[in-house]
Amino acid sequence: MPHVKQINHVAVVVDDMDKALSFWRDALGLDLHELRDVPAEKSQVAFLPLHGAEVELVRPTSDDSGIAKYLAKRGAGLHHLCLEVDDIEAMLKQLKAKGVRLINEEPRVAADGKKYAFIHPESASGVLVELYQI
Ligand code: CO
Question: Which pTM value belongs to this model?
Fold first, then answer.
């Protein structure tokens, strides 16, 4: 049986990075590990690690990305929860067998070799869930 190991990250969509950092970094006291542009995703991402997990703040840098459309439609807020699993193929197979609606039926592979796939919010209590295998 595949297992969920831990929460890997929680992604929050923001419209103003300075304003977001004034809360998450300055008021709450989380460390800002990295702030970088991700041209492939047309976004700027801030990584704030915490005990093996991370809060990721994502700000769209163009109006035509999926994340920009999400922000325009729903405003700033929680975008997705990412769970690390030990065997993503087996987990997707198990979810499919249980009738869970998947956005990615097969894992996708990121530039750094991580495998990931998204589960549709309709099957996950309204939350967009990302699975990671590192
Ligand atoms: Co993510």
Answer: 0.90
